[in-house]
Specification:
It is a single chain. By secondary structure, the chain is an alpha+beta fold. The protein folds into three domains: 72 residues, Rossmann fold (3-Layer(aba) Sandwich), CATH 3.40.50.20; 111 residues, 2-Layer Sandwich (D-amino Acid Aminotransferase, Chain A, domain 1), CATH 3.30.470.20; 64 residues, 2-Layer Sandwich (Dna Ligase, domain 1), CATH 3.30.1490.20. The chain contains nine helices and 13 strands. It has a five-stranded antiparallel sheet with strand order 11-10-9-12-13. It has a four-stranded parallel sheet with strand order 2-1-3-4, with helices on both faces. A four-stranded antiparallel sheet has the order 5-8-6-7, covered by helices on one side. Helix 1 packs across helix 9 and helix 2 runs antiparallel to helix 3. It is globular, with a radius of gyration of 19 Å.
Length: 278
């Protein structure tokens, strides 16, 4: 019987649903990363592993450890690293001819202000790493951009890379599309009057149609980053159409499953087991 390592740090509803589906298809060994000791170059027998840790650093390091045992992990350590670093992932997406918002990087307060001025206000200022829209800020003028940049400089080295992005006048929503292998089984609109539409920040989930253009864009984005199971965030620009914001390599999907009725957990479980048997 197929043996699967299930790596996690917090057992949310998302993880519980995948575990339930996996246990109907394979022998599963949950590994609670937070309380584990993992040896680089150690040995443990499994056909495949699924990474579901919320913490990027736990996910990244535990994936690297398990890969050193000769076990393939979905998603790989390289895919996790690429997806987490917004500047790196956006660069890869752009080089693969995937439409993305105009984005400037700066490395000082004055540089961040100048980048904002070049893009034209309002601008979105984000940390290069992070999720759920945390520390993303909308600067409407130079005074706001300077205050945000000064605050980031005080937070430490990672926040001294200023990621300044054009503000997209989206129609009160963005899109989170699920990618599993070569399929895009479902997507949702995240609707909000606030410019941050993440459901973790109060956005409302509604079913979205996966048209051929969106499907192609989502698949190409994940394939470019080596992400096998991912959540792709897309905005609709009035003139340019779909633009990719980022790819999440340990995606939450419970709202997608809830509003679309698609058994995302079952699809993930089947994909993992199918890959193990190849």
């Amino acid at each position: 019987m197929t043996r699967v390592f299930f790596l996690y740090d917090v057992l949310r509803l998302d993880e519980k649903m995948i575990l339930e589906r996996l246990r109907g298809l394979a022998e599963v060994e949950p590994i609670h990363v937070s309380s584990s000791i993992l040896e680089i170059g150690g040995y443990a027998e499994a056909d495949i592993a699924l990474q579901r840790s919320i913490s990027f650093y736990r996910a990244m390091s535990s994936t690297a450890a398990v890969e050193s045992w000769g076990v393939r992990v979905i998603n790989s350590s390289l895919a996790l690293a690429l997806a987490e670093d917004k500047a790196w992932s956006l660069s890869v997406l752009y080089r693969n001819k995937i439409p993305v918002p105009r984005t400037l990087l700066a490395y000082s307060i004055e540089g961040a202000v100048e980048a904002s001025r070049k893009l034209g206000y309002p601008v979105v200022m984000k940390p290069v790493m992070g999720s759920w829209g945390r520390l993303a800020a909308l600067a409407s003028d130079e005074e706001a951009a300077r205050a945000i940049a000064e605050h980031r400089e005080m937070l430490g080295s990672m926040y001294r890379v200023h990621y300044v992005q054009e503000y997209i006048d989206k129609p009160g929503r963005d899109i989170r599309a699920m990618c599993i292998g070569d399929e895009v089984p479902a997507a949702i609109y995240r609707v909000s009057e606030h410019w941050i539409t993440n459901t973790a920040r109060g956005g409302r989930a509604e079913p979205a149609r996966v048209d051929p253009i969106l499907e192609d864009l989502v698949l190409r984005s994940c394939h470019a980053l080596g992400v096998e199971i991912g959540g792709v965030d897309v905005v609709e620009d009035p003139e340019r159409g779909y633009l990719v914001l980022e790819v999440n390599a340990v995606p939450e999907y419970k709202n997608i499953a809830r509003v679309t009725g698609v058994d995302v957990a079952g699809l993930i479980a089947r994909y993992v087991v199918e890959q193990a048997r190849k």
